[in-house]
Fold this protein.
Amino acid sequence: MKRLLLFFIFMSFYVTQAQTNSVVFELNDGYTKFDTENCLTNKTDYSKIQLSITDGELSEIVSFKLVISLSSEITYTFNSYNELRNTDPLSWLEGKKAFQSFKKINFDLNLTLKNEKKEHQNFDVCLKEVKTEEPIVTRSLTNTTTKKDYIEIPVSFATDRNDSNNPNLNERFGRERAEVQYGRAVVSIPYTHKLGEIERPSYWRLEFSEDATKHVMIQSVTKQGKEAYFNQMAERISKNGKSTFLFVHGYNVTFADAARRTAQITFDLRFNGEPVFYSWPSQGTTTGYTVDEANIEWAKHNMKNFLKEYLTRTKADDIYLVAHSMGNRGLTKALIDLMNENPELKDKITEIILAAPDIDADVFKRDIAPKMVSKIGKPITLYVSADDLALIASRKVHGNKRAGDAGKGVVIVKGVETIDASGVDTSFLSHSYFATTSTIIADILDLIKSGKRATDRETLEKVSRDNVTYWKVKQHKN
C-alpha cells in the first residue's frame, strides 16, 4: 500500500512538473504535430520537420541537451539547439532502417534556464512504414513527385568555362576560358548523407562508379539564355523565402565539384532560398595553381558583370555572398569594382562570408578589406585557421602570409568579424572546413537564420589579445 501511495505521489509530481515547464518543445512540420498518434513515415516531407518551441523562448535557455533514441544501442546526443537544427532527421532514420525495424523514436530533453531552473521533457513519436507506390512529396526542394532513392537539390550556375558538350556530366564544362553561360543543375544527395560530406565513389570500398543511393551526383545540367535564367530565378526567389546565396569556389575545383559543393552546403544549411554558384575556369588539379591564379584574375571582370545582374534582377530580400580560398580574390575585387561603378547596389547585400581566403594578408588588410567595409557597409565574416595546410603551402610559395592563415597570427581588420576555426577540422588538408565541419556549419546556419553577430552566437567564444578582439569556434568536449 505504501509503495502504491509513493507511486501516485511521484506521478503527481512528475505530471505537475511537465505541466509547469517554462519551455516546451514538440516535433512538427509547421502545421502538424507528430506524437504517438500522428506518426512519422518513410514518405513524410522531412525537409519541413523541426523540433519547435511551442511555449517559452529560446533566449530563456542557458544549456540544452537532447538525446534521440531508437533503442538503447542507437542514440544521438545534441548539446545545443543550433547543433540539432543542423541535422537531417530523414537521413538519420533511413540510414538505420528505422521505419522497417522500429515502432517509435524517443526525444529526451534536459534544459537549464536563466533563472537556474532545470526542466525535463520526454516524449515518443511513432514510426510507420508506408509501402504504397502513390505519388508523394519527397525531400526534393522542387516539387511533388514519385519518391526516389535520393534527394534532389536544384542549383543555378553561371560559368565562364568552355562547354565541352561531353555527355558525362562530370566533364560537361572544361578548364578553358569562355563567355559567361547560364543554367541549372540538379544534384542528388543520398538519404545516408552525413553532415559536411560529399560522398563519392571510393576504390577502398570497391566502388568504381557513381551510385545515387550512396554518392552525391549531378543528375542533369541544363543551359539557359540569360533573360530566361534571371527571370525564372527572380520568380523562384519570390515564392521561396526571398533569399539567395552565391558561392564562388576556390583553386583545384572542377565545375562538377562546385555543383556538388553548392548542393551540399544548401542541404546541410537547410537553406530554403535560391542556391547559385559561379564557376571560373580552375584547372581542377593540384598542379594547376599558377594557371588558376591567372584565370581568377581574368574572371574578375565577368564576375563583376554577373554580380551586377544578380544583385539587380533577383529581387531577393536577403543576398549572401560566399567565397572560398582563391575564389575570394575574384569576389572581393569584383565587388570593389562594382561598388565603384554602382554604389547603390550595396543595399542589396545582406552578408559577405570569406572562408579561408588565399589572398596576401598584407594586401587584404591594407587594400581590400578597408575598401569593402567603407564601400559596402554590410557585415563581413572572415573564417581563418592555423591548420589549413593549403594556405600554409601558399604562404611558402608566395613568401607571405595569407589572409585565411592563422598560423602566424589572426588577421584583424576593423569592420570585419574574424572567426578562428583552428582545431575544428581533422581532415587531410583542413582547407574546406567552412563546409565540412559541424561546428562551422552550425555557426554559418545561425548567422544566416538569425542574423546574429559573432558576439551573440553560441558556437563562438570571444578572444581579446594585444588590444584586438576576434572570435574562436568552441571546441566540443567529449
User: Anything to note?
Assistant: The two ends are 44 Å apart (CA to CA).
